[in-house]
Amino acid sequence: MWPPLAALLRRLSSHPFDSPAIHANLVKSSSISSPIPATALLTAYANAGLPAAASRLFDEMPTRDAVAWNALLACLVCHARPCAAVAAFRDMATAGFTPTATTLCTMAKACATSRALRPGRQVHARSILACQGDVIMATTLVDLYMSCGLVEEALRLFMCTDCPKDVALYNAVISGCVENGRFREAFFILGRIELNGITLTCALTACSATANLMYGMQVHCKALRGGFTLETILCNALIDMYAKCGRTTAARMVFDRMACRNVVSWSSMIDAYSHHGHGEAALDLFKRMDETVPVVLPNAITFLAVLSACGQSGLVDEGRAMFHLMKRQYGINPGPEHYACFIDLLGRAGQIDEAWDLYCSFSTTRSELSGSICVAMLNACRANMDVVRGNKVALHLLEVDPENPGSHVLISNFHAAARQWFESDESRRIIMDKGLRKEAARKTGLAPLAPHFGTPSLREGERWFGMALGRREERGLELSLGLHGYFSISSSPGQAVKLAISLFKMDP
């Protein structure tokens, strides 16, 4: 019996898609009752992309050992079923099996993917003894806490771990800090390690979010010295960084020198032109996509960038053509974002009737309206002073997104522009009664990396502004937020401008 069984198991490892036939042979020979061939078959089902068959086989196993449990957990995690993996881990503990280091590493990954903090803490507690000094476990736990937004705990674990820190652990910490908006900590760690391709990409993401051109250029230089500039993902991050910092020429230079461009590269460069008002350049670049070898097909994000570019530059006919080209030539159904962008384009151009027809066509073909479409249509009604349609859209927006304070503020501003003072005050009152708070603006500069944007200047500005308001009160002048004067800002073309703005809450 065993030589044929050994041959079957060897075939399972090299031909996982033969699992159903081998499963039938194992059942026929009664070998399936042994945990060794059953576990091998379970792993083969997992490798063949059949997690349901693997779970069913596990449920039918008469005897299970720790290896079988680990195989099931690995299968569930590998096939993006983290919640099922967490439930299976609880069943494993109930069955009396002690989790091994392999089990804990697998479960830490499952908890990080599903953001299951409570079982993740339990895994962390068990790993203190079972996985002491294991860098893989430390990396997974850092990823868990970062994915749950617990940056302080992740940093504490990173600093206190006694395992040798490798590149994967550093990348987990840096990427977690960037995703949670903790750019200061990300830059601090970046300055103390040897950068690789993944770390450079994380650094450029932080530079893009903070518009930190100086550090971004340093990262670019390190990428050139390290020979990483041939990587497509890194070049895409460079394009985004230069675009966010207002350097479209530098972004285009990186784009032109790329050895291999994917759809993300084209979309990023088109979006860069869009944000800086270069609509014609964005359209020209889009037309060049069909001339590439091999041809790079645009996706929904590419068309969104093109529509935005047309809206920023007032290219109504071109935007209309692109909106209809999506479905007709590329088979891409316009989503809510595309409708909102095109409605905004039509509203800016004063074509409120066409914008309204487009808005109504979306509301009749889709089961639910999107908040972004309602916002775009309401802005179009406000710009064209279409009060009747605007009142209808305001009601739709309240139905779609009633708990968003920004929606109430937008509706209040629309009513105020239409001189509907009672309705405007009512929208403000709803915000107060529900306790809604509109997210305040925040400065994105980093004091150590941008000394000209530090806190002393902000405090001085607040003190100056307060004294100015006091003098106006003493002189009996009105207090308002109108434009009583203009501040001229001189900068070279294409240079990003950082403004330190102090926000004051004033009683009406």
The total count of strands amounts to: 0
Number of helices: 27
Percent of residues in β-strands: under 5%
Helices and strands, in order, run as HHHHHHHHHHHHHHHHHHHHHHHHHHH
- CATH first level of the domain at 335-434: Mainly Alpha
As residue ranges, the low-confidence spans are: 441-508
Q: Specify the overall morphology.
A: globular
Mean pLDDT: 78
The chain-level structural class is: mainly alpha
GO biological process, one term: RNA modification
Organism: Oryza glumipatula
PPR repeats: 65-99, 166-200, 262-292, 299-329
Protein name: Pentacotripeptide-repeat region of PRORP domain-containing protein
What would you say this structure looks like, in words?
InterPro entries: E_motif, PPR_At4g14850-like_plant, PPR_rpt, TPR-like_helical_dom_sf. This is Pentacotripeptide-repeat region of PRORP domain-containing protein. Keywords: Repeat, Transit peptide. Among the domains are: 261-330, no CATH class; 335-434, Serine Threonine Protein Phosphatase 5, Tetratricopeptide repeat (Alpha Horseshoe). The longest helix has 20 residues, at 455-474. The protein is globular. The protein has helices at residues 2-14, 19-28, 35-47, 51-60, 66-78, 82-94, 101-114, 117-130, 135-147, 151-160, 167-179, 183-190, 197-210, 213-226, 232-244, 248-256, 263-275, 279-288, 300-313, 316-330, 336-348, 352-365, 371-383, 387-400, 405-417, 421-434, 455-474. It has 27 helices and no strands. α5 packs antiparallel against α6 (82-94), α8 packs antiparallel against α9 and α21 (336-348) runs parallel beside α23.
